[in-house]
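Quick one: examine this chain and its backbone structure tokens and tell me how the chain folds. Here goes:
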Amino acid sequence: MKYDQLFNLFSIDSSASLVPSRVSAPSGFQPSRQTTASPIDALQLQLRRLYYAVASPQKYQVVSTAKRSLDVVVSALALLALSPVFLAVALAVKLTDGGPAFFWQERVGLYGEVFQFPKFRSMISNAEALKRDLLALNQHGEGVTFKMQDDPRVTRVGRFIRRYSLDELPQLWCVLKGDMSLVGPRPAVPSEVVRYADHHRNRLHTLPGLTCTWQVSGRSEIPFEQQVKMDEDYVQSRNFWMDLGLLAKTVPAVLSGRGAY
């Protein structure tokens, strides 16, 4: 019996929405580690985690331990090795317009928990305030995610660091802390999670990651629904060797710059 089939035997009635349907507007979110679940929502999601473990406890434990060990070792070594790159990018961003080097944002992680998500700032300082004026130009026309290839808010330095994903490097700290993993679905902002349909929420059943299947397959060129399908497939079949394979594919994907905007 598959994990989902086992879980469904004990599932709470579907009229009780999962965590993301209870996520309020971004202003309603609290700082890191604050759960967005109602008691029933939290119970249902914890039951799913429990039955994954009960269905195959040895595999669950081995995969979890190996994945976390890889996350800690790689993120710690990368943070040390890339410290000169961090300094160079931070200075370049700061000298662009005098604004902050880092951009902090709330993202929704495992089972609806909110955490603080850092990036090197690649846009002008008031980019979020200008977003409303650009929504009509969204290239992901379904309205859940916002992507625009020639976004006028992106700075000159920002285009370069986005091209090579240097803006994502600070998230190694989130991996080291345990809010993220090296591999997993990319974490969404609360305003996107509010609009999730039921099947979109399956991507919240594992830690979000620095890279994922659609990140190495075209990134922003992949339509949102296809991104969700790729994330669902990863959640259902993830294992340690799959993670290593996706990490290996990430390097050429980053160097190619395909879909990086």
Summary: The longest strand covers residues 102-108.
